[in-house]
Amino acid sequence: MTASTNKKVVIWRFEREPVAGLVNPRAYLSAGGVEVLTQAGAVAVLPFAEVKVVCFVRDFGPSELPAGQRVFQARPKTEGLWVRMRFLDGDILEGLLPNNLLHLEPYGFTVTPPNPTSTNQRMFVPRSALSEFQVLGVVGSPLRPRRRKPVSKTQLEMFE
Q: Is the pLDDT of residue 71 over 90?
């Protein structure tokens, strides 16, 4: 953990207490698991088999994974892939993935959660924590150009 830009996370694990700490967003994933600097000051590597979700949070207060909004109430407005994930323990979580194959990670998926006002800003879900992964829709497809309102001919141009 040599970078100075670390992010606050709460790591939810199967059958265990959550771990709060800091991660380097560029190097926290390794073949062995998730590397985290705990609040006690120890560096730990949690194996992917134990990790359910890594929640990037604003504050270390109570995280909303157990009781927060887990699915979108309506079709999302933000561009991306609208996905539904079913965990090994039966829980369901929806999120938005970037619609760019270069952003896919080999160990799992980084999604934007349904509730943008919650303490969870982003979530990393390991592939090993999922029993099912489903794409529900593509929001803001680049194949269709956005409709723009025609500019009125009576409107003055700003720079001539």
A: no
DSSP codes of every residue in the chain: ---S--EEEEEEETTS--EEEEE-TTT-EETTEEEEEETTS-EEEE-TTTEEEEEEESSSS--STTTS--S-SS---SSEEEEEEEETTS-EEEEEE-S-GGG--SSEEEEB-S-TTSSEEEEEEEGGGEEEEEEEEEES-TTSPPP-PPPPTTSPPS--
Give pLDDT tens digits for 85-117.
Answer: 999 999 999 999 988 888 888 899 999 988 877
Q: What is the pTM of this model?
A: 0.79
Given this model, what pLDDT does residue 127 score? 94
Exposure of 57 in the CB half-sphere (CA atoms within 13 A): 20
Contact 6, 24 (CB under 8 A): yes
The residue count of the chain comes to 160
Torsion-angle region of 129 (φ positive above 0: left; ψ -120 to 50: alpha; else: beta): alpha
